[in-house]
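Readers outside the structure-tokenisation community will struggle with the description of the input data as it stands. I therefore recommend that a typical entry be quoted early in the introduction. An entry of this sort, consisting of the sequence and the corresponding backbone structure tokens, reads as follows:
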Amino acid sequence: MIELHTPISDEDIRGLRVGDTVSISGWILCGRDAVLPKLLAMIEDGRLDELGVDLRGQVIFHTAVSPAGVGPTSSNKLEIESSIAPLSKAGIRLHLGKGELHPETVRALDEYGAVYAVIPPVTALLGAKTGETRVLAFPELGMEALHLIRADRYPAIIGAAHGRSIYEK
């Protein structure tokens, strides 16, 4: 098991390979289809500083945060998958979710020095491994707002790295 702590360095990313098992600890962002287009608009408008969080070396988990816990949503939903390249370009180094990504997204991850990890859909387990949570932006979206949470050894498997995908035939 490879231990990763946020912020994640470029050296950490270079060392990861498809199929590696990782454990992720530290502050991570959480967002899914309702909030990611809003986050991209903030990047495009040059308003990212309003969040008070540096995206460089950051992790984003494709999930909502609710009293029931956190669990991955499908990363290949249009609003989510289309955010992966621009968020990677903005500094996100690790995208957490579930499902197969399109080949062009896998290539974009490689181009921007980021990776994608598949996290098992185990809401109860992740709830026990989640510390503090806070709404970072868009509170009107409720559990789908942009959250910042403290993860403690979230388990995941690297699903796409360096232009390769675990889903390749």
Observations:
- The chain has a mean pLDDT of 91.
- Residues 2-165 form a domain with the fumarase fold (CATH 3.20.130.10).
